[in-house]
Specification:
The chain has a five-stranded parallel beta sheet with strand order 2-3-1-4-5, with helices on both faces. It contains nine helices and five strands; from the N terminus they run βαβααβαααβααβα. The chain has one domain: P-loop containing nucleotide triphosphate hydrolases (Rossmann fold). It is of the alpha/beta class. Helix 2 packs antiparallel against helix 3. It is 55% helix and 13% strand. The protein is globular and about 45 Å long. The structure holds adenosine-5'-triphosphate and magnesium ion.
Length: 208
């Protein structure tokens, strides 16, 4: 790929404030008039949104862990092929709400399928585009759950036990340790404004 744009991913446990900050980032990039697209993984393609619905539907209690992992990987490569790679090739930056790190944390660590298997089934996506920068919203899952309690109905993954969400969090910490150059952790327990300042500082410090 002749990559001209930057690829940034936003990661963190449920309720860590990713969507809140992504809304602020949209305004920030619009004001800068930088050509940037915002996408979510899973989703952001016609096929991907259908797969997302399948994955998150609370009625799908019979879904096996392996099926879940493969559906996320299928959804992701559709997003990579249809949106992310074409955007990066034409010089548009891409900011993605979650990416492969989420699968490693949720399906690899919390479901217990292992980091290697998740990397293997995501190799189509990983070979085409690794993020230039990943911002990890570091918030202990208990706090994220409390924040989400005021919210809409929970989806199939959000409904998992606190123990599951702790494993996800520990998975992220392990990724942070493994890829310190790419993944930057920010304290997501601070106010929305303080968190946004940290996000902005990290993005502005990156080589554009
Ligand atoms: N810094 C903050 N301090 C307190 N509450 C916050 C903060 N940031 C976001 N919230 C609130 O926490 C809840 C979850 O935030 P948000 O939806 O942005 O998280 P998320 O990481 O996108 O969650 P998910 O993984 O489920 O998509 C929302 O009600 C939001 O208003
Ligand atoms: Mg969100």
């Amino acid at each position: 790929m002749n990559k001209k744009g930057k690829f940034i991913t936003i990661e963190g446990t449920d309720g860590s404030g990713k969507s809140t900050q992504l809304e602020l980032l949209k305004k920030y990039f619009a004001d800068k008039k930088t050509d940037t697209v915002f996408v979510r993984d899973p989703g952001s393609t016609q096929i991907g949104e259908k797969i997302r619905y399948l994955i998150l539907d609370t009625q799908n209690t019979a879904m096996s862990d392996e099926t879940e992992a493969l559906l996320y990987a299928a959804c992701r490569i559709q997003l990579v092929n249809e949106v992310i790679v074409p955007a990066l090739e034409r010089g548009t930056n891409v900011i993605c709400d979650r990416f492969v790190d989420s699968s490693i944390a949720y399906q690899g660590f919390a479901r217990g399928l292992g980091k290697e298997k998740i990397e293997l089934i995501n190799s189509f996506a990983l070979e085409k585009c690794m993020p230039d920068l990943t911002v990890f919203f570091n918030l202990p899952p208990e706090k994220g759950m409390l924040r989400k309690n005021n919210q809409k109905e929970l989806d199939r993954i959000e409904k998992e036990s606190i123990n599951f969400h702790k494993k996800v969090y520990n998975g992220y910490l392990s990724l942070l340790n493994a890829y310190p150059q790419r993944i930057h952790s920010i304290d997501a327990s601070l106010s929305v404004e303080e968190v946004f300042n940290s996000v902005k500082n990290i993005i502005e410090a990156m080589r554009w």
